[in-house]
Write a sequence for this structure.
């Protein structure tokens, strides 16, 4: 009945399986070819070929075998080698067999490759009325019911096809094989445009307010296109209602040498038989605590395997099951347990002892040869998603598992095996009812469809969990071969060791033993550990011990999936101004300022930054220079209360600012520390245009909105970011008036007509509407020309043309920094650091004494009026060529250098100055304004740099240059 | 470094599980790292052993069990550097002193700078560290690549790495083992750990605290020290004592066990993520708080996405590592993001709170100074600047502010 290349593959007449027998495909495991069929998993193909053993265990090097057929697999972990980038720690039970699949087996540790992952990952954000997680009978039923009600339904399942555990068995629905019912349901759902069915998609997380995270595998399976653009997709779904039909995981049993290859979950044996037509062993002992494993025994017998014994811990298993298996040729040993396994690389037989009502071994014993031991320790409802979102679980002694407590916990409803309902009729009934209810609650009133007749399925009788099958000779403390977590090589002895130290909490025991910290995250080991612990503590039930915390993700997923497209070029949007291309063509070197790329300097020929900046500064001081200032944040503030609002936001007054004028403003946090600054214009009685620093724009808008929305909702004010609606250039220098005059022929740019801190609207050459202001961040005569963003390039071109005979020089942020520092103008964030007040900066003139504003109260606190607070000063190195490093600290010349060395302050800005023909710096020095003329030391790289404290205004202190040269 | 998933040979005994007495000289509320270290140093430095540490859950099950285990002391401000470096020096002594291997690994911490302003800020911090006697180096991208070859230091990154500060003495430790090691020594010295008992309020005699109320009966105390992190205000509120604290979720996450690949700790503020590889082999990642307030120990998924995008951006090699588990703790954050350690307006009530995201690395230092404060009734010189009166005087310790403001 077996084929030779796949000795364990059943003939189609015995079991068709859900595989494509017309094609043979090959994977490579540890360099050996493993043939199989489309529809196989890597594990089923290995088993078909007779390979059950996988990599040895992580710490003790014990032989291990394929143990499960699902995501709880502890042993069959592989490193995937095919494709563009190796991937660690994948369960062979979850990998779909493909031609060219190449893996190596692992021992609980994976590795990362230096090969770059070039695969595509993306995300999708959707809304849905009803999301159903799990496409077993309950989930399918829920989806059908909700969809028939007209709701937008999303059905999500981690496998390649719908059906869930129905595909592992041979149930009948309405008189036909369940697969026919599944097929009809799948067609109905596919034909309904309101329904989206996502297969190969795992719900990873269930967050507050019905927010679900779903990982969809679009590659690495036989149905995928040859080179899929997107390997995996992360779905973010906000649902009105969630139905969790997540099923249950079978528990292993804990007995001596329970990790021998050939020991396998009973449900896994059944899954391999029915889904993959693979018989993992010819002679199988079944060891169970509940009814479900009888189906495994019957399926085994039905395919010609021998079943030497069904070992049931219960004294009285249901008579009908006992008779069924007896009729099929196997006999049941009751009140018994497997106490030992024989064999080395494969189980060769088991020893069975009687077990009494207290869980102690009786004298009765027997031995059975076998090459497969199918174990069923009961079932754990898959409550992970439910519990992640805050749902509480309770121990249900009838189903012997942790189930959702209450009617459905938070807004998710849990149905079917996930709430401990294991009979098919019950699952269907719950599914239909919950689907109809979910649809109704999301606005689509509907009634549940009638539940079809189901054959050969009864409510399970009560299981008898045995958490620890006693060792024949050793005490629990010595049970070093009773594995609770095979992946972590953790045993009953380890749990007892933890208890011996004084630990009582399951959380401590988990951390001490590392049980449940592997890939399965406790899906299989968790409740057994709780059970062993409950026994050891003589707790009444596992419920008294409780569970560890369930956390997302449900199954492990690559970090790259979470990153999605947010990587490389798209990691963070690059913002450029409309003039960016012109800067590139001019050879600009760029700097990141917030998300913006700003020209830092424009080298000519072989200039380095130093030379370029000196030249750019000279141009601004002696001729004319131009900078793209489009990146400055702009927020339009509109409303009848806008003047009052700005008065509260800025430390200085804006309510009385006349329309047509601009004013420099400074804003503080509630702590009185400088937050941002900029020039704001009053466009109309109820309208201002605020400018912010380039990097601070978003933060300032958030700040304004926070006050408006949470503190002052009564104010009639609206804020709108208009940064990207404008393009602007600063035209700076003695010749700027000439250039702007040419640029704006209709505008009288004379000092008399166009005063400092005024703005005018006009039309530029070429018909470009513009708003021109007279503001200066350099101390020179300067104009800022603002146009609609669309005209940015034209503005730049026009400006360059207007100044071409004057050698108009584009300058970058570095020259801008030097120019403003020569004037002692601060850059918020560079000369301030969140601990500096306007007064510290010597900007008392910008702090109103009359009105209230954010931070005002803080400014009068004792620490903020200390005389020895740091204050902004100028710093001149005694050696005029020495450049102080920014960030260097200053100390008293005579102070001991044994740490901790008292620091007087630090250098915030430091440059070479063309105008001063020397280096200079700004700094924040304790009591600095009282110390002008004194000398301090900056210890730098093992030597001291001598520095004189000066006024922070180095250039044109009387402000003579602001209005430009005399006209005439 | 071996990724064998091993933990060291466990001790035979860690702690008793006693019934509480009616009275103690000192009751510490919260058996987290700071509560344990406080009890330890009360016994070790001050000879006070009649102590109960009362814990609503399981010992060291709050933020102590949930942090990314980074230890460093390269802080900018004098008050911070002094406190954290004191802690680091204690960390260096503790493995021997506790006779407990807790995988304290001084593998070095890189704090990356990605913008010109971050370079200025980082160099300023390194200069300050040097003068404060805290080890600090400034590394260029090439030097960074030598320390951490898997970090992408190419200029093609969206925010290229322009440099980093490097503190060689910094590193990581296994948080659980630290707690267990401290608990074991405390237990040996007679400290009672009372787990699964929630302190719900205080016994007071006018302005004097004389004990605590719990969900299972009152316990008298000569002095009470709060080390309850995110839940501090729930307790101080019962006295009408308002503390400037906001509780936020702080998330962290780990991958499966991987062969050693990451030799140090890397922290980036700008591309916001912290990464290291635990002794067992998991990559451990974290970043900033969730902005909303909450006690639920659950965070938002977009915060996780941002961190992982940052991690993959900086470490392309992480792309196919698997996210195994995400979790959250509850951190209490003050307006200046520095802790409050000191007396309260209530006699015999002392607080240690507001550690925000920085608590683990300070564990022994916090315990040392808080024990001093409780034992003597007055702050240790190291925590003198950390009293709650600073929010009235304005003498803030605004490490966050000083560290980074965009421009």
């Amino acid at each position: 009945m077996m084929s030779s290349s796949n000795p364990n593959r059943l003939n189609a007449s015995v079991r068709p399986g859900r595989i494509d027998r017309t094609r043979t495909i090959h994977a490579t495991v540890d360099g050996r070819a493993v043939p199989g069929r489309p529809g196989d998993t890597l594990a089923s193909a290995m088993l078909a070929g007779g390979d059950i053993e996988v990599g040895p265990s992580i710490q003790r090097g014990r032989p291990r075998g394929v143990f499960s057929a699902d995501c709880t697999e502890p042993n069959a972990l592989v490193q995937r080698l095919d494709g563009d980038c190796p991937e660690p720690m994948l369960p062979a039970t979850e990998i779909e067999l493909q031609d060219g699949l190449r893996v190596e087996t692992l021992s609980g540790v994976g590795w990362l490759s230096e090969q770059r992952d070039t695969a595509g990952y993306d995300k999708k954000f959707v809304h849905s009325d009803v999301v159903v997680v799990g496409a077993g009978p309950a989930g399918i039923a829920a989806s059908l019911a909700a969809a028939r009600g007209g709701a937008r339904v999303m059905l999500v399942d981690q496998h390649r096809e719908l059906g869930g555990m129905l595909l592992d068995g041979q149930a009948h629905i309405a008189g036909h094989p369940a697969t026919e019912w599944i097929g009809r349901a799948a067609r109905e759902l596919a034909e309904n445009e309101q329904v989206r069915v996502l297969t190969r998609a795992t719900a990873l997380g269930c967050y507050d307010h019905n927010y679900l995270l779903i990982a969809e595998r679009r590659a690495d399976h036989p149905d995928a296109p040859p080179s899929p653009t997107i390997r995996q997709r992360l779905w973010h779904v906000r649902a009105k209602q969630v139905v969790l039909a997540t099923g249950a995981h079978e528990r292993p049993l804990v007995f001596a040498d329970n990790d021998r290859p050939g020991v396998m979950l009973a449900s896994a044996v059944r899954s391999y038989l029915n889904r993959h037509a693979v018989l993992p062993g010819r002679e199988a002992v079944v060891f169970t605590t509940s009814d479900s494993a009888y189906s495994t025994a019957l399926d085994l017998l039905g395919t010609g395997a021998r079943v030497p014994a069904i070992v049931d811990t219960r004294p009285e298993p249901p008579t009908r099951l006992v008779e069924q298996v007896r009729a099929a040729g196997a006999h049941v040993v009751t009140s018994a347990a497997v106490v030992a396994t024989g064999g080395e690389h494969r189980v060769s037989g088991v020893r069975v002892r009687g077990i009494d009502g207290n869980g102690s071994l009786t004298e009765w014993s027997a031995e059975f040869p076998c090459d497969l031991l199918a174990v069923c320790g009961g079932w754990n409802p898959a409550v992970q998603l439910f519990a992640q979102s805050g749902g509480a679980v309770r121990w249900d002694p009838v189903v012997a598992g942790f189930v959702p407590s209450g009617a459905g916990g938070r807004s998710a409803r849990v149905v079917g095996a996930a709430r401990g309902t294991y009979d098919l009729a019950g699952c269907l009934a719950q599914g239909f009812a919950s689907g109809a209810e979910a649809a109704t609650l999301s606005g689509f009133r509907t009634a549940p469809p009638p539940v079809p007749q189901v054959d050969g399925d009864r409510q399970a009788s009560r299981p008898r969990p045995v958490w620890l099958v006693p060792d024949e000779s050793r005490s629990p403390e010595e049970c070093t071969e009773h594995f609770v977590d095979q992946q972590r090589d953790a045993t009953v002895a380890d749990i007892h060791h933890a208890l011996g130290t004084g630990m009582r909490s399951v959380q401590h025991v988990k951390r001490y033993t590392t049980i449940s910290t592997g890939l399965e995250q406790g899906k299989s080991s968790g409740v057994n550990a709780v059970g062993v612990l409950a026994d050891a503590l003589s707790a009444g039930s596992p419920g008294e011990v409780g569970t560890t915390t369930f956390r997302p993700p449900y199954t492990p997923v690559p970090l790259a999936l979470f990153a999605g497209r947010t990587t490389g070029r798209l990691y963070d949007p690059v913002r450029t101004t409309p003039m960016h291309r012109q800067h590139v063509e001019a050879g600009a070197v760029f700097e990141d300022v917030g998300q913006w790329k700003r020209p830092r300097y424009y080298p000519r020929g072989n200039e380095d930054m130093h030379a370029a900046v000196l030249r750019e500064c000279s141009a601004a001081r002696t001729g004319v220079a131009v900078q793209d200032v489009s990146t400055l944040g702009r927020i339009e503030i509109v409303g009848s209360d806008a003047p009052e609002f700005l008065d509260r936001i800025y430390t200085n007054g804006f309510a009385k600012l006349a329309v047509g004028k601009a004013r420099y403003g400074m804003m503080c946090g509630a702590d009185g520390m400088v937050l941002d600054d900029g020039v704001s214009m009053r466009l109309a009685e109820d309208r201002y245009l605020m400018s912010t620093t380039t990097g601070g724009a978003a933060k300032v808008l958030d700040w304004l909105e926070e006050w408006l929305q949470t503190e002052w909702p009564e104010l009639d004010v609206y804020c709108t970011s208009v940064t990207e609606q404008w393009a602007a250039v600063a035209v700076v220098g003695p010749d700027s008036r000439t250039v702007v005059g040419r640029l704006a022929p209709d505008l009288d740019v004379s000092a008399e007509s166009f005063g400092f801190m005024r703005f005018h609207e006009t039309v530029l050459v070429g018909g470009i509407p513009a708003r021109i202001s007279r503001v200066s961040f350099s101390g020179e005569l300067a104009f800022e020309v603002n146009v609609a963003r669309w005209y940015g390039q034209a503005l730049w071109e026009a400006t360059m043309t207007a100044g071409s005979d004057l050698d108009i020089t584009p300058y970058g942020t570095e020259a801008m920094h030097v120019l403003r520092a020569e004037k002692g103008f601060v850059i918020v964030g560079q000369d301030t650091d969140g601990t500096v007040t306007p007064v510290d900066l010597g900007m008392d003139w910008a702090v109103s004494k009359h009105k209230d504003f954010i931070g005002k109260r803080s400014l009068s606190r004792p620490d903020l009026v200390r005389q020895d607070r740091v204050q902004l000063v100028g710093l001149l190195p005694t050696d005029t060529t020495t450049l102080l490093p920014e960030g260097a600290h200053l100390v008293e010349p005579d102070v001991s250098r044994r740490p901790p060395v008292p620091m007087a302050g630090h250098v915030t800005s430091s440059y070479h100055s063309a105008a001063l023909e020397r280096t200079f710096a700004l700094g924040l020095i304790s009591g600095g304004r009282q110390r002008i003329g004194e000398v301090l030391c900056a210890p730098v790289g093992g030597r001291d740099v001598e520095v004189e404290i000066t006024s922070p205004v180095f250039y044109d202190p009387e402000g003579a240059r602001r209005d430009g040269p005399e006209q005439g | 470094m071996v990724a064998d998933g091993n933990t060291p040979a466990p001790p035979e005994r860690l702690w008793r599980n006693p019934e509480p007495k009616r009275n103690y000289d000192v009751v510490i509320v919260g058996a987290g790292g700071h509560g344990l270290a406080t009890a330890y140093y009360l016994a070790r430095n001050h000879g006070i052993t009649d102590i109960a540490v009362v814990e609503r859950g399981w010992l060291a099950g709050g933020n102590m069990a949930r942090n990314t285990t980074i230890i460093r002391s390269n802080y900018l401000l004098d008050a911070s550097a002094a406190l954290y470096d004191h802690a680091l020096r204690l960390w260096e002594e503790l493995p021997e002193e506790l006779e407990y291997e807790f995988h304290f690994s001084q593998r070095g911490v890189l704090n990356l700078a990605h913008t010109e302003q971050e370079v200025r800020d980082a160099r300023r911090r390194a200069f300050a560290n040097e003068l404060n006697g805290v080890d600090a180096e400034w590394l260029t991208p090439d030097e960074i690549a030598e320390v951490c070859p898997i970090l992408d230091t190419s200029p093609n990154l969206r925010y290229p790495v322009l440099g980093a500060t490097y503190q060689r003495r910094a590193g990581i430790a296994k948080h659980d083992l630290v707690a267990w090691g401290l608990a074991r020594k405390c237990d040996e010295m007679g400290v009672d750990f009372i787990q699964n008992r929630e302190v719900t309020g205080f016994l007071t005699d006018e302005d004097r605290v004389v004990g605590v109320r719990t969900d299972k009966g009152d316990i008298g105390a000569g002095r009470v020290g709060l080390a309850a992190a995110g839940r501090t205000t729930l307790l101080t509120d019962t006295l009408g004592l308002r503390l400037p604290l906001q509780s936020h979720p702080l998330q962290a996450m780990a991958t499966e066990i991987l062969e050693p690949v990451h030799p140090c700790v890397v922290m980036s503020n700008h591309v916001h993520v912290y990464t290291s590889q635990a002794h067992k082999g998991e990559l451990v990642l974290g970043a900033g708080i969730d902005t909303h307030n909450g006690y639920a120990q659950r965070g938002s998924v977009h915060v996780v996405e941002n961190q992982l995008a940052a991690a993959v951006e900086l470490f392309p090699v992480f792309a196919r590592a698997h996210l195994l588990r995400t979790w959250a703790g509850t951190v209490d954050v003050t307006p200046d993001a520095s802790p409050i350690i000191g007396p309260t307006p209530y006699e015999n009530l002392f607080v240690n709170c507001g550690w925000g995201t920085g608590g683990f690395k300070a564990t022994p230092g916090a315990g040392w100074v808080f024990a001093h404060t409780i034992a003597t009734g007055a702050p240790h010189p190291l925590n003198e600047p950390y009293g709650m009166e600073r929010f009235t005087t304005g003498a803030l310790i605004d490490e966050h502010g000083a560290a980074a403001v965009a421009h």
User: Anything to note?
Assistant: The first strand of chain A starts at residue 25 and ends at 29. The first helix of chain A runs from residue 42 to 48. Residues 566 and 572 of chain A are 7 Å apart (CA to CA). Chain A is about 20% helix and 30% strand.
